[in-house]
Amino acid sequence: MEFVKLADGNQLPLLGLGVWQVPDGGTCEQAVRWALELGYRHIDTAQAYGNEASVGRALRDSGVPRDEVFITTKFYPGSQDPVAEAEQSLRKLGVDQVDLYLVHWPQRGPAWAWPGMERARERGLAKSIGVSNFGADDLDQVVAAGSVVPAVNQIQFSAVEYRQGLVGACRRHHIVPEAYSPLGTGRHLGNKRVRAVAEHAGRTPAQVLLRWCVQRGIPIIPKSTHRERIAENAQVFDFTLSDEDMAALDALDRTKGTSKALERRWWR
Ligand code: A2P
Predict the structure, then answer these.
(1) Is residue 261 part of a domain?
(2) Is the CB of 129 within 6 Å of ligand 1?
(3) Is 16 in the pocket of ligand 1 (CB under 6 A)?
């Protein structure tokens, strides 16, 4: 397993299983159990996904020691108190601490929740704290307001949503950008150029999209509920894309190198 080092010294595995839109219960438990069997050591959930209890059950059933698995959850910013919500998450997950706790999106502004996130870390509820769906301006505000810089900004990121401006802003603040929806929630798998690069590299479209992120040092959390796909998505550390293939994928960017995290906000 390969890792990236966070500014606070903790290590984030480059590959994780994302469970956004995975229904709570058997489907979620099975996906997490398969991932752990197949060598994944990083699971990404959120309070808003409603499946933390399933993640916790699968983790316990797997027999994999807790300290070998990196668990991320996210503060739902429609709630008030990051500390109280973290305590609830820990109860649902059945763990004493999460590895990473993120503000899920900058609802009601980017900075108000941060003192509570810092308290959650001080109390040992989370090893590292960070943000998600924060644009460059949001990052400037949260960095200015806090005493700890977010370790991570988890963003919608892929060759098609390259967001180079935002990645640059993260790097300037020593924040690790992490890619959610690295397959475009599956939409980019049928892309002609992705398919051509996959054929050229002798890999699948999913693998080249994921490899494109990994080769840039950007952690990925692809979601799947199918065992063979969970396995396929993990096979991205045994090949390298050529400069030519990387450039062909770079050219897919539809964000014009934006420093924004999203095209439109889903909250008010
Ligand atoms: P499923 O869960 O039915 O396997 P993203 O990670 O960008 O959000 O993409 C997730 C979507 O892509 C899901 O619909 C998932 O379907 C699908 N998917 C994940 N991995 C693969 C793969 N290796 N091949 C084809 N589809 C995949």
Answers:
(1) no
(2) no
(3) no
Model confidence over 189-231: pLDDT tens digits? 999 999 999 999 999 999 999 999 999 999 999 999 999 999 9
Residue ranges making up the domain that contains 114: 3-250
Q: Which of 49, 101, 162, 180 is catalytic?
A: 49
Cβ neighbours of residue 226 closer than 8 Å, sequence gap 6 or more:
none
Q: Is residue 49 annotated as part of the catalytic site, yes or no? A: yes
Structure confidence by residue, pLDDT tens digits, 22-45? 999 999 999 999 999 999 999 999
- Domain count along the chain: 1
Tokens of 112: 């108000």
Pocket test for ligand 1, best of 178, 212, 223 (most atoms within 8 A of CB): 223
* pLDDT above 80: residue 90: yes
The pTM of the full predicted model, rounded to 2 decimals, is: 0.98
Residue 268: inside a domain: no
DSSP label of 148: S
166 within a domain of the structure (yes/no): yes
Residue 82 falls inside a structural domain = yes
- CATH code where residue 32 lies: 3.20.20.100
- Contact between 99 and 126 under an 8 Å Cβ cutoff? The reply is yes
